[in-house]
Amino acid sequence: MKYFKNIVAVVMLSIFPHLLLSQMRPLDPMLSDYQYPFDVHFMNIKSQNNELKMAYMDVWPKVSNGKVVLLLHGKNFNGAYWKKTAKDLSARGFRVIIPDQIGFGKSSKPQSYQFSFSQLAENTKAILDELKIDKIIVLGHSMGGMVATRFTLQYPNRVEKLILENPIGLEDYKTFASYQTIDQAYESELKNTAESYKNYQLKFYYDNKWKNEYQPWLDMIAGWTLHPDYPKVAWNAALTSDMIYNQPVCYEFKNIKVPTLLIIGTRDRTAIGKDRAPKELQAKMGQYQELGKKTQKQILGSKLVEIENVGHLPHIEVYDQFFKALFNFIM
Fold this sequence. Notes:
Layout: H1 2-15, H2 18-22, E1 40-47, E2 50-59, E3 68-72, H3 83-91, E4 95-99, H4 117-130, E5 136-141, H5 143-154, E6 159-165, H6 182-190, H7 194-204, H8 215-225, H9 230-246, E7 260-265, H10 279-282, H11 288-298, E8 303-307, H12 314-317, H13 319-330
Parallel strand pairs: 3-4, 3-5, 5-6, 6-7, 7-8
Antiparallel strand pairs: 1-2, 2-4
């Protein structure tokens, strides 16, 4: 009977995928009832006349190799999606620091804040200073790649190695897409739903192939849209979208001097503002199979690992290939 019920459930979800979405629960802006994979700590930050709390996880190995890895999340994510990466790094002797940037995850959602990659880098440095960590290996995914780039340029003496996993910002979106005001971006963010988020992820992350292991990373952001305080989250999302559009890092890759690895899923087509670009330019945006090679040439001595037919999230979609490339580079 149990086997029969399982079969029925699978068939029902395949016919009516919205049933899966309907099981999501509302999440408040601070994700207070969403459990992270490791203990969460908070650091008080006074920034831009705001009293803020910045969340982070600090994962210690049983036997340390003396190295620390900093994992920086993307715009549609938080530190929790680094669970397996952090666990495997820790098992190999690395201490792992995983912050939620201000405006994301369990960190504060200020409603009056000038977001900049320099500010996010400074906030991240404050955590490292608090923990008395001097040298780090930095890994940034998606928007986290832009934060990692700015951090490396701002504090080069703190960075031992840099890894960029399908980072956005490998091109200047202003040269393709028209500007939208923060108010316009906010109105757009307010329209997000669990279904629209899933459709976006299917298109750019997973090539229209949904697996159960992807669900938690959808639940994190989709649950916000079901909460009455979602406008607070949407406002921060609009502010950070404006930051990404107006603060390109691609012109400064040539200034990076630390050993750098690019891990690029070549199927990825993520590009900020693509829907606002002329149709003849949209197809030219987010061409990661070309952008990875271009960026490698800009960063002197950098290495490129291309993962064919993989989208925006190698560390979720093809974890073993991702981790092999990462581990070989940092050891």
